[in-house]
Each structure stands twice: as structure tokens, then as C-alpha cells.
Amino acid sequence: MDHADLTRRVIGCAIEVHRRLGPGLLERTYEAAMVIELQHQGLRCTRQVGVPIRYRDEWIGEYRIDLIVEDAVVLEIKSTERDDKFFEAQALAYLRASGLHIGLIINFNSKLVTQSVKRLVL
Hints:
- The chain is of the alpha+beta class and 122 residues long.
- Helix content is 39%, strand content 33%.
- It contains three helices and five strands, in the order ααβββαββ.
- It has helices spanning 3-21, 27-40, 85-98; strands spanning 45-55, 58-69, 73-78, 102-107, 117-121.
- It has a five-stranded mixed sheet, with helices on both faces.
- Helix 1 (3-21) crosses helix 2.
């Protein structure tokens, strides 16, 4: 499956989760629902994936990616009223640290979730 098709399917899952739950819940609630919906749609995902952060070949910490779908797409889930550029920088850092190239930021705290999706390519 190519990345465009995969990201479309992930966004479709987010639409279904948002349709059933609506806005206003906590991020971890949407994350748990996305795992169920992705699996229901036949997509593999891994939750809260730790990625090491290195500086000059030394480990200096670890960050957690909300979801990785099909070992290809970093999915960062948000539930906030603000559209913060920090979220984009955070997702790009996760892409660099994980070695993956495609990311989605999905903010479930919106009237239409399709208006709150950002696709990132590294």
C-alpha cells in the first residue's frame, strides 16, 4: 500500500472515531479509540512507541510517539482548541528520530476533524 492510500485510510479511521465520540475528550481517549478503529479496518498499529534521542552518538533521552501505523506513518493525536506550530515541530522531530518519512497530526477537538489534519513529509 502506498503512503497516500495509507494516510487516507488513517484519516478515514479518524473521521469514524470523531463521528462516534465527537470533540472535547482527552487525547488518550482518542488514541485508544484510534487503535480499535485502525485494527477494525485491518491496519496494524503500535501505541506509545519510544524513540531514542541521540546527540553526538550518545543517548540523551526518549520521546513517545502516540501511534505508528503499518510501520510507516507517525500519528500524533491532539485534542486542543489551539493550532500550535509546536505540534508540527514535535511531529517532525519524531519523524527524524524514528527514521520514518510520513506523519499525520490529527486534532480531534474540532467541529470537523478533516479540517484539523496536517500531513507531514520528511
